[in-house]
Task: structure prediction
Amino acid sequence: MLAEQKSIALIRKFNSEKKHSLNELEELEDKSMQIDDYENSLMDKIADLEDDLMNIEMLLQEALNEATGNF
Result:
């Protein structure tokens, strides 16, 4: 249950940051100069989110293996 809550919190944080970045981008007059920066920043955030979610998945798998191994 805690892993699910952490995963949901990470995804919500990512979505919030993405929305904030999009709003900032929309307010700029010369978007063409900022799109590459936005894309790079977004790709970095996606990679971080994937890493964090993978770590949670690995911990869950490890706990499951331990629980079934003891059973």
About this structure: Helices lie at 2-27, 35-70. Residues 16 and 65 are 34 Å apart (CA to CA).
